[in-house]
Structure formats: C-alpha cells, structure tokens
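Pasting as-is:
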Amino acid sequence: MKLYSFRERMFRTKHLPPGSLETEMKRCLNTFDITLLGVGHMIGAGIYVLTGHALKDIAGPSIVLAFALAGFASLLSALCYAEFGARFPKAGSAYTYAYVGVGEFWAFVIGWNVVLEHMLSAAAVARSWSGYLNALTNDWIKNTTVHTIGEMNFTYFGDYLDIVAFIVACFIAFCVGIGSKGSTRFNSFFTLLNLCVIVVVVGFGFRYADFSLWSGETENGVSKFFPFGFAGTLAGAASCFFAFVGFDGLATAGEEARNPSRAIPLSTFYCMGIVTVAYVSMAAALALMVPYTDIDVNAAFATAFQQRGSTIAKWAVSLGAICGMTTSMFGSMFSLPRCVYAMAQDGLIFRWLSRVHGTTRVPVNAIVVFGLMTAVIASLVNVNTLVDFLSLGTLLAYSIVAACVIILRYQHDLSDTVSDDHPEYFRLRFPGSGTLEKLSMKTGIHIALTIMLFGFIIFGLSFTTGLITHWFGIFLAIIGALLSMISFFWICVYKQNNVQLAFKVRFVPFIPALSLFCNSMMMLNLPGLAWIRLAIWMTIGMAIYLLYGMRHSTEEETRKIADSSNPQQQSVKVFQNTPIKETDLEQNPKNDTHF
C-alpha cells in the first residue's frame, strides 16, 4: 500500500461526485424559508446586541458608515458564498467550500472557526436576550441572582451567572431539534414580526431626530460624527461585521433546500438587501435620538426611547428585541449542528456527532452537545468579549472562501478547455512569462494569492499601527500596495475555466480580491486579545485534527481502499469536478446544479 506524506494528507481535497444531491437530511426548504432563516439570524444580533456597544465605545455616530462598510464587505463575501452554494449544495458552508478548494487542513481550520462562530453568536444573543428582559424588570433578575448565588468578579466574564441566558439557549436548541420545516416556521413567524417592529421603531426614532448630534464639533474640538476618528469607524466596521454573520448560515441549509443551486444564491442576495437597509436605518435612528455618550449598551433602544418619554416605542422595541434575538439565536443554533455534522461525517471530528435522528432527520447528537456548550458560555461570558472573538473567526472564514473562488476559477481540471501542462494557459505573452510557464497553474495561483495576502497585511499594518504618519510607514504601505497589484495582475494573465454554473461571481479575480482586502483590513483592526483567544481555540482544534481527524478522514479511508484494490496505483485523484453533460440534463432537467 502506498504511504502518503504528511503534507499530502493535510492538503488533499474532498471528492464530490458530479451532480450528487443525496443526503440523509430532508429536502423541504424553499427560497422563502431560507431567506427568512438568514434575515432572522442576522437582524437580531446586529441591531439589538451590537449597535449600542459600537455606537458608544467604538465609532460614535459614524456607526452608520461603519454598518455600511461592513455591509459592503459582507456583500463581497456573499457573492463568493453564492457561487459556492451553486457549485456544492452540501451542508457545512465555508468548511465544505474550503475542503474542495484548498484542502483538508484549511477546511478543518475554517470548519473549526465556523463552529465557534455560530456557538459564540448564539451565546452573545442569549446573553443580550437576558439583558433586555432584565432591563424590562428593572434589574429584578440580576439582583435576585446576585443575592442568591453571588457575583462573578473575573475579567471577561459577566457580572453574575446568567441562568436566564442558559435556559433560553437550551430552549432554542430544543426547537431546532424538532425538525427543519417545523422549526423554520417558528423562525419565519418571529422574523416577520420583528421586521414589522423595525419599521415602527425607525419611524418613531426619526420623529425624535436631532441632527445637531451629528454636525459640528464638541467643546474639545472633536468631530461629533467621528468622535473616535476614522480609525474608530474602521474598528466599528470590524466589530459590526459580527452583525452579518447570518448569511453564511444560509449555506448550511444546502442539504435541506429543495433546489439548492437556485435557492441559496437568491436567498443570499434577498437577505443581504433586507438586513443592510434595516441596520443602517436603525443605527441612524438611535444615533439621532440621544448623544452617543448616554447610550445604555445593554438595552440601547429601549432606554433611548425611555429618555425621550415614548413608552409605546419603548415597549415596541423591547418586543422587537425579544423577537429578533430569538430568531438570531435560532439561526445560529440551526447552522451550528449542521457544520458539526459535515465535519463529523467527513471524519475530521468524532463521527458519532454526525448521527441523524430517524424521525426528525436532524443531527441530534451535535444539537445536544453543542447546544449545551453554547448555553454554558452564554451563562458565563459577557457580550463584548464574545463579539470581538466572534468577528475574527468570521472574517477568517470569509477570507478563505474568497481565496477558494479564485483557486477554483483557475483550476483547469474542471474543464477540457485548457490543460495545466499546455503553454496556452496565459491570456497574453509578456516578459518573464517563460519563467512562469515552468510552474503549474495551480502552483502559480497559490503563490500569487500568498503574495497578495502578504501585501494586504503589510499595507494594513502601516495604518493600524499608526506608522503611516512616518516615512517608514509610507514605505511599507507602498511595498504592500505594489506586492498586491503585482500578484493581482499575475492572476489576471491566466485563463479561467469555462465550467457552467447556476450562479457565478462577476469580475473574478477583482471581486474576491477586494473581499480579501476588506476582510484583512478589518481583521487587523480587531484587538490583540481576540487573536490570542483564537490561537487557544485553534490549539485545541489542531490537537483533535492531528490525533483523530487526519487518521479517520473519509478521504484517508477512500485512499486506503483504492490502494489496496490497486497496488500499482501511484496516486489517487481526490478532487474531480466536471460540468454536467447535455445528456445528463436531458435525463434530469430539474437539476440545474453544474459541477
């Protein structure tokens, strides 16, 4: 039997049979269900959890611009996700996309972070759900808990053990476990109710608008709109990115969508449009009602309306907050076990987590285990700690998806148009092209992407560290910009494959490269402690992968079977993705998924 190197095992890619839509889960969701799943996931977390914190402590009134920037960056990522949703209608979202694009190691890194993303998202919203309920009871819940159990005087933890957050997280996990169609109906009802409340709240908010809060300067000569400077706006955009994490959860429903290659892209765009308008409108209304320094980060909208004496609006926004945060928790809890299921089914984490219940057809073990973990985190950790940590993992996942789009577009074993070994894989001839021809196209694209990312990091660090005000920082920015442009044009000279898909991102490699740039800039603006926490989480994950996942991977087992059946075989091709033939379309005209 052939022995495979450690490197070959880490970077082997996932084999997906062309046109295969078989799944253990039930295909019962339409475009409407999936759109409201994404809207519900995103709209509660961004508006009711994050807006107050980002407005008061990070960006000031420029939070409106920060949300717009975060929405733009998210749209770029959403375009990349939409193409992958059309290519590979499977559960797992970014994890699956990375597995078929860049290999098993990066797939595990991204999958492990996506699991953390959904877990922390649900925990953060559960904590804020409890905070809103506590505000409505005039701190009765907090005071009773502190009197009975005591306070928690630990850094990064909450002031008290939040029993309500624990119970709410467990209840939402139970709702997710009753089955996809029934649970999405629950989500759709509360999402539509929340959208109605948002319209009411924005109307009341602009009624009390005071535009003097945005114009001019303070007594200290600081801009009222940019009290933390433009750097604060960028930092706010990085934190606000947390608000847009829901759209990648749409892709986790790929194995439960009736027509995934159409439903996933359409749902993504509908969801992004609805949510971005809602975020900007709500943030503007809040920033115009009261000075940003007077915001209560635990219940921003409710206390703002209370200060303005509008009792009706206060109770309306509280109702909307409860509905929005309920659906946001549901979206995270819905996506979380499906990401775990995808990794466990591939053998990268413990396989017993992939067990699907015979009646409800949902991954029951993953729901129980990670639902309880989410509930424990919600009861212990404060919201600000969760948000900073969450944004980093999300941005990392989106960045790898953008890179995978470029890689797959230039992977010419996907079509018979151009061969990696043929000199015509260049669009044009130029000085030095003879040297590049010695590299395979795959190697050339990987090197160019690495240089591009390195250039983005150098460029971004010159700004985030403040060095741009000195000659050395300007020099670093110029070097970073040159490296990025050279690598971009390097990618552009290659010819793309001609695979036909239900949806394809326009202007590749520009759109994915711009997404990479935006994500890199926002990651560099996150606090250093977020990177330390990420390193700890990844250390735990890599221990699981190296000790268990690498040996129990489905691709490892496939290779062993292939080698044992054919001892003379020198290699096993683990990634194959060919377009559907016309004869296949004639036999199955309803299947418009192209591989």
